[in-house]
Amino acid sequence: xxxPKTKIGKLELYGVKYKGKWNMFLNTxxxxxxxxxxxxxxxxKKIHVERLKLxxxxxxxxxxxxxxxxxxxxxxxxxxxxxxxxxxxxSRYHSWWRMAxxxxxxQMDNEDRIGTKDRVHSSECPIHGKKAEGKxxxxxxx
Length: 142
Ligand SMILES: [Zn+2]
Known about the structure:
By secondary structure, the chain is mainly alpha-helical.
């Protein structure tokens, strides 16, 4: 379907607004390549707002276990994004997990591995690392 160009500006159409500010824009090449409709765009934007809310929560989280549960929520969001983009749901192509607040895994190394099964995890990462497993890092505690 053709995206109407007249009545609505590109910013309004593709921009994701969060807390009153433009936070990001949907990939317009992908919109045309995947035959994304205006309705799909609304859904994608809605899911991204959920992701941004989750990121806010994760950035403030001190409890490792809760943080890891939030990371699981993020994975569900990634699947929903794939579906809304009309892609196969495939965790090998997930890309937001490495942007998660407090994730200490090497972003570039993982970017290179998108589309493969491999993920490079830092042992120091509270979300994906082994060291933090079972730990609760509350503020003020050791
Ligand atoms: Zn990590």
